Amino acid sequence: QFDLILIRDLLIHLKNSDIKKIINNLKKIDFKYLAINSNPVKKNEDVNVGQHRKVNLLIEPFYLKEPMVSINDGEDDKFIYVYEKNNLI
Q1: Is 32 helix (H, G, I), strand (E, B) or coil?
Q2: What confidence tier does 76 reach under pLDDT thresholds 50, 70, 90?
């Protein structure tokens, strides 16, 4: 059981299929809040593990709901989204 899970600057290095696995596994964990970073790009390009690109968790193929809180992460296009577990997807 966790109060908060923080995932920051990880997903940008993973394939979309691996990100989907992480999101699905989060559903199985007992937590209250998730803080995870996202970028407002228009398309989620796929990469090989270890490469880098920006990820938008609100669009295809992830489709997370709008976060309860969005915090600028020091760059114009980088945000930390905060979710309650029951309002993640």
Answers
A1: strand
A2: confident
CA-nearest of 33, 40, 45, 42 to 75 is 40
Compute the Cα dihedral for 19, 24, 26, 29 and give only its sign. Answer: negative
* 3-state secondary structure (DSSP) of residue 81: strand
Residue 37 three-state SS = strand
Name the CA dihedral angle for 49, 51, 56, 60, rounded to a multiple of 10 degrees. -50
Q: What is the pLDDT of residues 14-33, one digit of tens each?
A: 999 999 999 999 989 999 99
Match 């696995």 to its residue by tokens. Answer: 21
